[in-house]
Specification:
This protein has helices at about 5-30, 50, and strands at about 35, 45. With about 55 residues, the protein is mainly alpha-helical.
Length: about 55
């Protein structure tokens, strides 16, 4: 394998790793609810901690 081919493979590996990191970050952000709703009274809170301390 030539030096040029190794450089190309390294750049492709870095690009793939960066793409996977971006996809992972966007996937995690999509699964965090923006509001937490009380099942008893229906009120909505901006954090899970606020929901737990409302009673």
């Amino acid at each position: 394998m030539t030096k040029r081919m190794r450089e190309i493979e390294e750049k492709e590996s870095i690009a793939l790793a960066n793409t996977l990191m971006l996809l992972t970050n966007s996937f995690n952000k999509n699964h965090v609810p923006l509001e937490f709703e009380c099942k008893t009274c229906g009120r909505k809170f901006s954090s899970f901690q606020a929901l737990g301390g409302q009673n």
